[in-house]
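Supplementary material to the annual report.
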Amino acid sequence: MTFFARLLSKANGLIGALMLAIVLFTACLGAVWTPYDPLKSDLLNRFAEPSMAHLFGTDMFGRDVLSRLMRGAWVSVSIGLSTLVLPVALGTLFGAAAGYFRGWFDRLLIMVLDALMAFPGLLIALGLMAVMGANRYGVIIALSVAYLPAVTRVVRGSVLSISQNEFVEASAVMGNSRLYTLVVHILPNCLAPLIVLTTMMFGWILLAESALSFLGLGVPPPEPSWGNILSEAKAHLIRYPLLGLLPGICISLALLGVNLLGDALRDELDPKSGVAPSKETI
Amino acid sequence: MSELETGSATDLLAIENLEISFGPLAVVKGVNLTVKPGEVLAIVGESGSGKSMIGRSILGLLPAPGRVTAGRIGFGEHEITAPSSPDELRLLRGRSIGLIFQEPLSSLNPTMRIGEQMFEAMRLHTDLSEAQIRERAIDMLRQVRLDRPEALLNRYPHEFSGGMRQRIMIASVMMLQPKLLIADEPTTALDAVVQREVLDIMQDVARANETAVILISHDLAVVARYADRIAVMEQGVLVESGPTRGVLSQPQHAYTRKLLSAAQLGAPSPIEGSSGKPLLQVENLSVDFSEKTMFGLFGRKVHHAVRDVSLKIAPGEFVGLVGESGSGKSTIGRAICDLAPMVSGRVIFDGQELDRLSRSEEQTQRRRIRVVFQDPFSSLNPRMRIGRIIREGLRHDRSATRSERQRAVEEMLEAVGLTAEMADRFPHALSGGQRQRVAIARALIAKPDLIIADEPVSALDVTVQAQILALFKRLQADYGFACLFISHDLHIVEQLCARLYVLHKGRLMEEAPTPVLFAEPRHPYTRRLLSASPRLEQGKDGLQLAETELADNEGDTVDYFDALRADEPYRLVETDAGHRVAVRGYAEIAP
Amino acid sequence: MYLFVVRRLLMSIPTLIIVAVMIFCLVRALPGDAAIMMLGGNIDDEATLEMMRQQLGLDQPLPVQFVAWLRELFSGNLGISVLTGQPVGALLLDRFSVTATVVLLAMASALIVSVPLGLLAAHRHNSRTDYAIVVLTILKLSMPSFWVGLMLLVLFGAILGWLPTVGFVSLSQDFGLGVTYLILPVTSLALSEIAVMTRMMRAGSLEVMNRDYITHARAKGLPERQVLWRHVFPNAFAPTLTMVGIAMAGLLAGAAVTETVFTLPGLGKLLVDSIYGRDYPVLQGALLFIALIYVVTNLLIDIAYTFFDPKVRLT
Amino acid sequence: MKKNTRIFATLFAATVIGCAPAGAVMAQSVVHMALNADIRGTNPGVTRDGNTDIIHAQFVEGLVTYGKNFEVIPMLADSYDVSEDGLTYTFKLRHGVKFHNGEEMTAKEVEWSWNRLAGEASESHCKNYFNGENGLKVVSAKAIDDYTFEIKLDRPYAVFLATIARFDCGSMGVLHPDSVNADGSWNAPIGTGPYVMGEHLPGRYVELNRFADYVSRDEPMNGLGGGKHAEVDTLHFDIVSEGAVAKTALMAGDLDLVALDAMAASELKDQPGFKVDITQSAVWDTYLLNPNDPVLADVRIRQAMAHAIDPNQIMAAITEGFGKASPSPVPPMSKNFTEVEAEYPAYDVELAKTLMKEAGYNGEEIKILATRRNGAYYERALMAQAMLMDAGFNATLEVVEWGTQLEAYRTGEGYTMQSFSFSPRLHAGLSFEMFTGDDVRKAWQDPEAIALVQESLTTRDPERLQAIIDELSRRFNEQVPAIGLGHRMLFTGMSDRIEGFEDWGAGVLRGWMLRTSN
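Predicted assembly:
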């Protein structure tokens, strides 16, 4: 409670939270209602200038830009959120196991992680999209795989450092099992860095998704995502810069929100962790 | 030199009605102090008393957002609180006022060679040639009794032990022959023996350069030896100041007395155990740490932390385990409760060898052993409420019902002198002393037969230390547990322990009943430890510093085992009942 | 030192092998193959298709192909590009040189800008300057760099027409011209790096600044500038350096997006094209090469680290 | 020399504010163009693809080639004649034709070149057209004397000349034997074309230099044949995969001539300093219907779909109104294109609905496969989807990567309908053959249609051919194996200093026609 109060009392915390709230709201709204059907093309009304009818005008297929941005918000955000699930869950599992039990498991894990790291998210994406069929799940899985190492490393790291604490030994002395100690004493203390990382990761994923879509490897059209709206607009930038400007601004706003909030969170939860704000990984 | 004479006429440093504030709250209030050239002033106080802030303010280096909000600091003809030019202060620093920190580990720049760090200030403040500066540095390192100084200059800080770093600090600061040296807890982080050396060196060097010293410390006993005058601080207020003897013998202020009584710790009252078969027997315990070289997998270097140590604890007996850091004393404690791996040796608890027992039996036995750790800040899970932390001690006691446990927790809280409502707090809401009480409660709630107390008070302020020790004594009376009391401080163990084991570099040097050990220590290492740890004693005219001057034993020609030559044959010989000493090879000792 | 290098390289072998297997499986999981791609819409008869498959050795069962690939690999031969018929090794190096030029320039300029900037921000902690820097960096961090790239392209390339928008001329080939081609991509890459590094540098410096040895340095009477550069910088730079390393490895591995935006014939572009063209030899080679880049870059970083952190020993 | 002028150009471009036609002062005799991908090699008919063929066509020539109406005309052959039984083709070669290495071309090199592509050892897919794989077998192909070359077939084959003129075989291009190394491996092309292969920096650019000693035919230029009088010294092709970037580059003056999409064309059309060429090609844009998909088993469903889709609107949209529908597989410029071929199922949503009802359609999924790739595959699919949904079809759009779609096309699985395009087939019979047959990938598997197609390829009687083509067109419209859209419009943007450019149905660039003003 007081924690959130503290968080929101900070400028960046407050602004970030607000912006993120707006984005999330738009996303949810876009899921259920948009001014027009974002997929409905109207060939007689292409590249319409912004007007009362079409607040942001229409695109190369006469689709309402605002509607597409709203639906796009939903698609991008939902992908971002659902992509968080897998890495956080598995990453915590692996990281905790590796950090606490050490030994061969740890070494093996690190090795695989290195391999994953040395492996362009781009190709993972394409490969999985090809295998899974071109749909948002391909993107989600691909990005999940791409971000698994990050989480695992962070969790492993903080498990290692927490294990140094005497209360962990105290628990052992009381005759508690390793598992109990891990779950009751260590993991709760890893929460802070994990929360921060998760927040930041949401930003990374938004970026990665748009980058993938930009390369034509992301969410397949016609379903709009901020990324593929941008890449569709690419060809018309010079004549209709607005088409390219708007999605870019949407992405930037969302990210700004995430980054500000993430910074505030980090300062609150664990100042030492150097988790940096979003950055393309592709 | 000429300045110095003019300065010597008046006070070198004059602090008048100084007030230092962090934002709204004042941490130093209306302090008046003066320092004469060449004299040693000790500022004593517990953590948070603002003593360090005074030191910083003299250099004009208060950590943000701290500011001097009132009063003045005059140094010679300079107004530190109102410098005429920004550079005026800067030029004073180092050249006229030197500063030494508590943490030798963090006060030298880890990425810069020792030489560089010594030179740069010289380059700045003097116009000596590189060669001269180098000469000077080497000479200085000699003064602080470091050998082969030429070589040292090209090494990095992390290559030195704490004590050596602190000497290097002293050298690099004193090199500029400042008129005033501010030493902020210069030896708190060091072992008694080293502490003594470093302080002696500092004193000598200061004398040699006619430098006045402000010695900031929490430990009265330590400073008493060196200080001409003592100033006592409590929560930002200067409660008493005067010549050392005076303050020691006729303390005016109540707080001063409190400090003094805490420092002298009252008369020892060892807790004897019941005779008969020992509760715990450790036989020929050895522990190795094989530290992997960077990027593991390849080669490892083995370090013998504990070698072939045997000890006994009778039921209800308090036994002390003493040694400087790195002597392996904590490791023994950890090995006993299975936190460190033994390479050899047996731990026999209540007549049963633990490793021979079945898993479950071993568990039940082990639950009769509990630990109280050194650092109350890391020994309590920050995300658990106090109540739960203590209750967890009962986790494996299937018999107790929920309500019983609840009651037990409350009783325990009372027992350790905390209130029942603290059960709902989180650790961060408690003071260090309170946390340690919680840790003790957690250990005791399961009514263990043995408690391993690993430096339980060394992280606490002196006054608190006394309380915790008292608490131990009382609880023992109530619960009758035995205790292996691990500490680096002879006087602390002297308080409670019936017998002492002196450990050095993983080997037992001497073992004896406490009074015997203090009265007639045999092993040279023990003797060094004793003489290195000063204490205050009730003398004929009030309190005074008691130098444990040991009758020199020129007569003693025994070839004692020297832990520094680890690989030579080692043997413990019994000189008389319960008094055993480490000797080399088959050397004999006449009782 | 040499021992260390050798050891590290040895240790990276398992990683590389895992990567190799993953790569091979993934690549072959893609539907379609080079033969089909080459024929495109004109798959006039299966005979032709089969013939091309034979030529490309795609008619063999997968394990056989894999073993063949590995054997070639160990004999130092990465094969021939299906699409352009060039030796893959040469192709990779050629493309890498492009990526490297851009990335290294971007990184260098980013470092030059962000180190002083970070120090400044930390030095003026909580001042206007500090806030300005923080806000600007976070703003930049929130913009997709490829988007910024596109905007730069439209502005300077098309609307203003100041800079060339397409292609690449290597500096060795023609310096003056090469520079004009590099400006835009380097800028758009550098911008985001600057943002990240500045933040790292600032955070690092802030942490270092309340260490005793900084106070001690001040207590020696050193002027602030000297305190910052001789005492704060070396200690604050180490973490930044690691970050730089990771980022660099990532970019060297191919800034695919940037290269696509500015049509630089770089490693990333090569990767994308070879994926689309199912150019297995190139694709596999490229990926392996990338994995290698990671290993080597990290190695170099560790070595560089020792200059800033004497505690680290390369043994 | 070239380089310096280039610098000057760039520096100039860099100083001029705004996008004034900085190109105007560019090197006199260099034309900068864009290739959307790197060439696969310099070996005509072997290391090739549609993109590469364009480069090959600049430096290699064959005995015969295509005229602008896709009639076959002699190129290196002075003339040719066909025996009564249609089994023997005799080519009389032109005299004084020079290879790039200065040597004169004789039947010896022609024979060598033929065997290079069509011989047993050939690495070219072209041999499959002549070794019986697809029916026709060439019995012998040999030099009679220095200037006579003779080919014998195992059966009469009407489209034989059309086949040897194929672009993808470099018109069975004639090269000098020194083009290959002693060990037979490929070295560098020594052809007879008006341009010589120049510098190729992989992934960056390809250059072609004018062949000074080129000996031209006397006729006026005609398609890929006729007179070739090259003037531009260097044809410089930058490799630019992004259409948008290519256009930006054109406007910035870095490129002189680039292929554009319709949108870019309409943008550029009115801009001062630029010209746009708009030409209809023989590339057939269509929707292939999956013959094996149960949903489409009922012909009425397919007809309904045809009636639900309005090719005119779609063509107008994807060509910015420059193009119009021509749903027949037979390209309008073909001499076999009559009013019969001009007919197609009218756009009639009501009719579509009734047909659906009759066929008992209720919401089965119509999965439209498309890819994001030049050629508006995606855009076409998107609009078709919209129209089908208007008619009440449950049409879904799946956008996959090109390789994936090709695989689907080849195996005939994973799609109900896909937007597709066929490269120019310059014989009306081939125009149907490309999607008719019994392979899984072929959309039209009706035996009668297959038989008709086979006949169209063997008959040598023009009336009969026309009759067959008309019959096929009628059956095509009622059986709807595919829904034709139109023949792709080609847009080329260029700075106005480029003269003489003229596109044609085959869309193969002819560098020799280019001139640069001032």
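Chain D touches chain C through 63 residues (CB under 8 Å).
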